[in-house]
Every structure is written in C-alpha cells, then in structure tokens.
Amino acid sequence: MSLHLHNITFDCADARALADFWSRLVGWNVYYDDDPEVLVAPHFPHEGPGLLFIPVPEGKTAKNRVHLDLSPEHGTRDETVKAAVQAGASVLGDHRKPDGSGWVTLADPEGNEFCIERGVAERGLAAPRAFRIGS
Predict the structure, then answer these.
(1) Number of domains in the chain
(2) Own/partner pairs for 39-48, CB < 8 Å, 24+ apart?
(3) Distance CA 42, CA 26 (A)
(4) Are residues 1 and 53 in the same domain?
(5) In a domain? residue 111
(6) Is residue 21 within a helix (H) or strand (E), and if so which, with residue range?
(7) What is the reported pTM?
(8) Are residues 42 and 73 in the same domain?
(9) Any residues with CB less than 8 A from the CB of 36 and at least 6 apart, and which?
(10) Which residues pair with 31 in a beta bridge?
(11) CDD domains given for it (predicted)?
(12) What DSSP assignment string belongs to 42-89?
C-alpha cells in the first residue's frame, strides 16, 4: 500500500493569523472561504502536502510529538532564522555548532515547534538516495 501525504494539520486558536505566519515563512499562498479551516499551499488545487490550520477551543499544552524540519532553498539557515523571528517566531533552542552544523528550534506564534537546518548549499551535499524497505 502507498499513501499520498495530503496535508499537515495544525490545531490552533486563530487559523488565519497562524496561516499568515506560515505563508510568510514558507512562501506559499493562503486559501480560505467561509469554512473556519485555512490552507497554506503553493497553489490550489494542490497535490500536497499543504499546511491546514483548524481552529480548536483548547490551547497547546505540551511539546509537539511531530514537528517540521525546514531548510532554506535560498539564503542561509541563519538568515532564515532571523526572518522567522521577525515574522513572529521565538527561538526555543540554539543547536548551532562552531563548525557550522546544527539547527535552531523555534516556535510559531501559537507555540508549535519547528526546526531550521542548514540548506543543501550550506551543507555541500548531494540529495540522498531513496529506497523502499522490503524491496
């Protein structure tokens, strides 16, 4: 069996505000209608994955068990961290090392954790090979 990853969903208090933050961070568009759910995607309709924001009455109470690891397509990790903070993120942990490796853990305006790593150009790496377990 294979599945298509359609959306990554965030429970939140203010779907439009949080979607706006993530739209600025990843450079995608915000889509909404009369439904309280808000979608952030490169285009509509999207083949996925998109970021879906659903308002819920309860607030975040613990550390995320799943989070996004992001790396810049253009620019550097440090420039991306600075832009994220300017957009409303807060730094939770700085794991950068003197040799340039490492990452920065941040939280979006509603406290959802995400990490920013170095981009491929900064790492000087080729893309990893893909394989399927059991084949």
Answers:
(1) 2
(2) 39/7, 47/4, 48/4, 48/5, 48/6, 48/7
(3) 9
(4) yes
(5) yes
(6) helix 15-26
(7) 0.86
(8) no
(9) 15, 54, 55
(10) 39
(11) VOC
(12) SSSS--S-EEEEEE-SSPP-S--SS-EEE--SSS-HHHHHHHHHHHT-
Give the count of alpha carbons within 13 A of 121, CB side only. Answer: 6
Task: Please report whether residue 40 resides in a domain.
Answer: yes
- Mean pLDDT per 10-residue section of the chain, whose length is 135 residues: 88 96 96 94 89 93 90 93 97 95 96 94 71 63
* Residue bearing tokens 């893309």: 127
Question: Has residue 30 been placed in a domain?
Answer: yes
Q: How far apart are CA 54 and CA 94, in angstroms?
A: 29
- Strand partners for 70: 116
Rounded distance between C-alpha atoms, residue 7 and residue 134, angstroms? 26
Domain, as residue range, for 25: 1-57
Nearest CA-CA partner of 38 in 60, 57, 11: 11
